[in-house]
Amino acid sequence: MHTYQLGEKQQQFADIIWDNAPVSSRTLAELCAEALGWKRTTTYTMLKGLCDKGIFENRSGTVVSLMSREDFAAAQGKEFLCESFGGSLPRFLTAFTRKNKLSDSDVAELQKLIDEYREGS
């Protein structure tokens, strides 16, 4: 099971939660009706799925985030890297740069990240 992979509608739903959390399940259903055209049952079904993934939790009618949007994005990236490149960032960068040229600002940003990582080690 791909824990951190979300479909388009799941991602939109997760964004609504992150933008409003903590949020009552009733308010969440209203937000989803307005933004996505969903019925209350659809909202609750989707919520259960994302709660089962450990991203959110419904605490007595209040939906809270167990992972920040940034932590979730990091987990998505790690899962992709592990599944597609054996966890190797250099293998990913090699594959990426075969078809995509890095700009000078991209290289500078990557170098800055590497330098900050080294300083923090």
Question: What does this protein structure show overall?
Answer:
The protein has 121 residues and is mainly alpha-helical. The chain contains six helices and three strands. It has helices spanning 8-20, 25-36, 40-52, 69-85, 89-99, 104-120, and strands at 23-24, 56-59, 62-65. Helix 1 (8-20) packs across helix 2 (25-36) and helix 2 packs across helix 3. The chain starts with 7 loop residues before the first helix and ends with a helix. The relative contact order is 0.11.
What would the keywords be for this entry?
121 residues; 3-stranded antiparallel beta sheet; elongated; mainly alpha
Task: Give the helix level as a range of percent.
Answer: 55-70%
- The secondary structure category is mainly alpha
| Model regions low in confidence, pLDDT < 50 over at least 5 residues | none
Strand ordering within the main sheet: 1-3-2
Gyration radius from CA atoms, angstroms: 18 Å
- How many helices? The count is 6
Beta content comes to 5-15%
Q: Quote the average pLDDT.
A: 95
Strand tally is 3
Largest sheet geometry: 3 strands, antiparallel
* SSE order, one letter for each helix or strand: HEHHEEHHH
Shape: elongated
State the end-to-end distance. Answer: 33 Å
Briefly characterize the structure.
With 121 residues, the protein is mainly alpha-helical.
